[in-house]
Design a protein that fits this description.
The structure holds two protein chains of two kinds.
Chain A: H1 2-20, E1 33-39, H2 48-61, E2 66-72, H3 76-88, E3 95-96, H4 104-109, H5 117-122, H6 124-127, H7 132-137, E4 139-140, E5 143-144, E6 146-147, E7 150-151, E8 155-159, H8 160-165, H9 175-187, E9 191-193, H10 202-215, H11 217-223, H12 234-249, H13 260-268, E10 272-277, H14 282-287, H15 290-294, E11 296-299, E12 305-307, E13 314-316, H16 321-334, H17 337-347, E14 350-351, H18 360-365, H19 367-378, E15 381-383, H20 386-389, H21 392-406, H22 412-424
Parallel strand pairs in A: 1-2, 1-3, 9-10, 12-15
Antiparallel strand pairs in A: 3-13, 4-5, 6-13, 7-14, 8-10, 8-11
Chain B: H1 2-26, H2 31-36, H3 48-56, H4 59-90, H5 96-108, H6 115-124, H7 131-141, H8 143-155, H9 159-167, H10 172-183, H11 185-201, H12 204-209, H13 218-221, E1 226-227, E2 230-231, H14 233-253, H15 255-263
Helix pairs in contact in B: 1-14, 3-14, 4-7, 4-8, 4-11, 5-8, 8-11, 9-10, 11-15
The chains are: A alpha/beta, B mainly alpha.
């Protein structure tokens, strides 16, 4: 009896294992090609409604030919972590949305990306859609690995009424003038600027990056290089010194230990006069009403600087030709004029497709977006941002160093050294 | 003395209930109020967060998945760990010591260190993006903890009780089912509750081993309410309330059994 029971148990185990091993992968050769797509454009993400509309339109147009298997990974950090797991396990999805994050270099070192150059060469209409600098940004060693979907030139926004109250006529042209304006705002009883110290301190880092990017030609070149390892330059330390001064004297108390949402909430409620951020924030302004939007202006950083609009695009991680072809079909679809035009209207983003003109009607409805487009042309200095250029462990290190910097517990030199130490671990 | 006792019990009750009440209160405040004055009472009650929570994230589906995974995994975990704990306390065999040592070492391993090998194994078995994957992984990851909790309980049961049952004519299974299991029910309930909570709250493996709504669990749903440049705290706290409601309801329904199990003596008459 015991033996029979043991044999039966073994059989059940083996059978369940065999059943479990049945792969969920597609098997039919006649049916549609199923491609995996990973994205964090879901939930409260500003681009989620636009992305959902793209998927709906794509499914309609490619029904029976290409099937999208979408993996929603809500939350930026969770998304980046999961993509890194996929890269390490050589299991990258066919299409990887990179947002503003640099996943390309990690994926390339794992030899996990498809070279898209032949697709650009084979389709001149597709290749002609993009700006040269966007393509250069998404290329390594002369090969194209990423397809840009949008441009995100980052300026800063200011509250005109609060500037007026402090007697400030127009945004600062130099960093000295900027620091004086901070003092003037403070003297008028206004908290000058929204900043943060957690989640890699996006708001504070934009100011720091802009200072580094505009202080000198050398520091501009440094701010445009990928994966820098030495942060101990005099310009970087000077920029950290100015950022520390801003954190200690010219921002809200909740910046120490605060995240992006604290800074955004302060600006949206008229508690601070300035916030550094990209055009995607315009939809938050619009939710506050027309009067609020009319009271806002946007400006280049002192010394006529702006964050480069180029950003990491979609990557293709397909393992075979059929899947790579299908993935590129999707990229052609998402960057076509109709989808890109919809993007401008639905979430105030600037299209990567240069053939898409932002109409006067859209600008009349969204004047801040129009101003940003104009400022792009006026900027004299362009530089990249830390999230897409620095090592990911350096970005994580910022979480530890910013609170110390804001509390005055470390010097700018120690801040720079801590980032250098982190970078050198790579 | 009575006053002291009451004030002690009241303070313990307040410490337990205040975080929950605070979350409920936050779910009824606007985002602006939550960020400006997190500790203040709501100026007006906002119930729209609950509707938004259900609209933004697939909460219903994730709750069902979590319930299935947590219940099945808890049953499996307790079944396997109780058998392992019983044999290692009652019988002498060659591999007894190595098994106990391996279990002790497993307790010290950080679960994050296992993520890559576990991912590879699950992929190899074709179980990626299935509830079965999470059930098996959760059962295994928490096995050492349940094993030692139950082992401690088995060690307190006198051998004479089993000998008496064998003298009365019980078979091995009858002795285990009718004598041993009832005596260790407090241990089983303790280990079971701890394992259920572990399954309900686990995030990293749920994120790594699943890709679709069909297998994902509630901790992942909370990520739908915040991203780097967008947030809806009102909806997020509403989702938290919705998420913890089932466990509170289960406790209310099975209150007597759970307390009885937790407070029962080691030897029953």
């Amino acid at each position: 009896m015991k033996r029979i029971l043991a044999v039966l148990l073994c059989l059940v185990l083996v059978l369940s294992l065999v059943t479990a091993c049945g792969s969920k992968e597609e098997t039919s050769s006649d049916g549609p090609v199923t491609i995996r797509l990973a994205t964090f454009q879901v939930g409260v993400n500003a681009s989620a409604p636009w992305f959902a509309s793209v998927i709906e339109a794509f499914n309609k147009e490619y029904e029976g030919k290409i099937k999208l298997d979408i993996e929603e990974i809500p939350g930026d950090q969770a998304y980046v972590d999961k993509m890194k797991t996929y890269i390490s396990m050589n299991d990258l999805p066919d299409l990887v949305f990179t947002g503003g994050y640099n996943l390309m270099d990690d994926a390339l070192s794992a030899n996990a990306l498809v070279d898209l150059t032949p697709y650009f060469k084979a389709d001149s209409e597709f290749a002609a859609r993009f700006f040269d600098d966007d393509i250069a940004y998404n290329s390594r060693d002369g090969k194209i690995y990423g397809v840009p979907v949008e441009r995100q030139p980052v300026t800063y926004f200011y509250n005109k009424a609060l500037f007026e109250k402090a007697g400030i006529g127009s945004p600062a042209k130099t960093w000295d003038e900027f620091m004086m304006q901070l003092e003037e705002l403070k003297a008028a009883g206004i908290t000058p600027v929204s900043m943060d110290t957690l989640d890699s301190a996006w708001l504070s880092s934009l100011w720091l990056n802009s200072m580094v990017g505009t202080l000198s030609t050398e520091s501009n070149a440094w701010m445009n290089q990928s994966m820098p390892k030495d942060y101990n330059s005099p310009d970087f330390i000077k920029a950290v010194e100015m950022t520390q001064k801003m954190l200690m004297n010219y921002t809200t108390k909740d910046a120490l230990g605060g995240k992006y949402e604290n800074g955004a909430n302060n600006f949206l409620n008229g508690k601070t006069a300035m916030i550094a951020n990209g055009p995607w924030m315009i939809s938050d302004f619009q939710e506050k009403g027309d009067d609020f939007v009319k009271n806002l202006g946007t400006a280049l950083y002192p010394n006529d600087g702006i964050f480069s609009g180029s950003m990491p695009g979609y990557l293709v991680g397909s393992k075979d030709q059929a899947h790579a072809d299908a993935a590129v079909e999707f990229l052609k679809f998402i960057t076509n004029e109709a989808m890109q035009g919809k993007m401008v209207e639905m979430y105030s983003s600037i299209p990567a497709n240069k053939n898409v003109e932002i109409s006067q009607a859209v600008i009349d409805q969204n004047p801040l977006l129009g101003e940003i487009v104009e400022l792009q042309g006026e900027a004299k200095i362009v530089y990249g941002n830390y999230q897409s250029l620095w090592y990911s462990n350096v970005v994580t290190e910022l979480d530890r160093q910013y609170p110390l910097l804001a509390a005055g517990s470390i010097t700018p030199e120690q801040f720079a050294q801590a980032l250098t130490d982190a970078a050198k671990k790579n | 003395m009575k006053v002291k006792g009451y004030s002690y019990v009241t303070s313990i009750a307040l410490i337990s209930i205040i975080p929950f009440l605070w979350v409920v209160m936050l779910s009824l405040k606007t985002n602006e109020e939550i960020l400006n004055n997190p500790l203040s009472l709501p100026s007006q009650l906002i119930f729209s967060g609950y509707g938004n929570a259900l609209e933004i994230a697939p909460l219903g589906q994730y709750l069902i998945n979590s319930a299935i995974i947590a219940v099945v995994s808890t049953a499996l975990n307790i079944l396997i760990s109780s058998m392992a704990a019983y044999t290692t306390t009652r019988f002498d065999f060659k591999l007894k010591k190595p098994i106990v040592i391996i279990m002790s070492i497993s307790l010290l391993l950080p679960i994050t260190a296992l993520i890559m090998p576990v991912y590879s194994i699950i992929r190899f078995l074709g179980l990626y993006d299935t509830k079965t994957a999470l059930i098996l992984v959760y059962t295994a990851l928490d096995l050492p903890m349940s094993f030692f909790i139950l082992r401690a309980f088995f060690l307190t049961i006198p051998k004479e009780l089993e000998e008496a049952s064998y003298i009365d004519g019980s078979s091995f299974l009858q002795c285990y089912g009718r004598v041993i299991l009832p005596l260790t029910s407090p241990g089983m309930i303790t280990a079971g509750i701890l394992h259920f909570i572990f399954c309900w709250n686990e995030f990293l493996y749920a994120l790594t081993l699943t890709a679709s709504h069909g297998a994902r669990t509630v901790p992942l749903a909370l990520n739908y309410f915040t991203s780097q440049f967008a947030f809806d705290y009102n909806a997020m706290f509403s989702a938290v309330v919705i998420m913890i409601m089932p466990s509170i309801l289960i406790f209310i329904v099975f209150q007597e059994k759970i307390i009885e199990g937790l407070t029962a003596g080691a030897v029953k008459g």
